[in-house]
Amino acid sequence: MEKKKTIFLIFSLTILLWFIPVNFASASETNNNAAYYDLEVGGTQSFTLIDENHEEVIITVEEILPTSNVSLFAVSNGSYRISGTKSGIWEANYYITVSNNNITRAYSPSATVLSGSFTSTSLKVDNTKQATYYLDWKLGMFTSKHYLRSNISSGSLIISY
After folding, report:
1. Read out DSSP for 104-127?
2. Is 39 helix (H, G, I), strand (E, B) or coil?
3. CATH fold group of domain 29-160
4. Fewer CB in a 10 Å sphere around the end CB: N or C, the chain?
5. What CA–CA distance (Å, rounded) separates 144 from 86?
């Protein structure tokens, strides 16, 4: 008798769980090797992306408090720390200052090589909507160009590599 009750209970729970809608909450979105920082959530958000060589790239955006003039329609005025890790190759980060939906400053770049070496690194504000940390990387005879880019578009902070 006890066995029948247990089987009935497991069957009932299975049927019940089958019909309960499940929504997965995400603080961020990723698309086309880019991470979209969710301004409503703010704070620190991390993204795991897969590059064209099927290697992980981890992107983290950290809101530097205090911020003011928070808006749901524009990137919050303030500062953000942009970090990226190309699995087994490099780690890099820099800060940006945002004012009136524009990147007004990019500063304090830092890069660490995990394998190979950097032949050059440079951080630039490309225009009022974009800042890029350029990383030229070398391993033996193989060289490649990498970047960690912040872009403001349609009220979002988009990070690509």
Report:
1. EEEEEEEEEESSSEEEEEEEEEEE
2. coil
3. Immunoglobulin-like (2.60.40)
4. N
5. 13
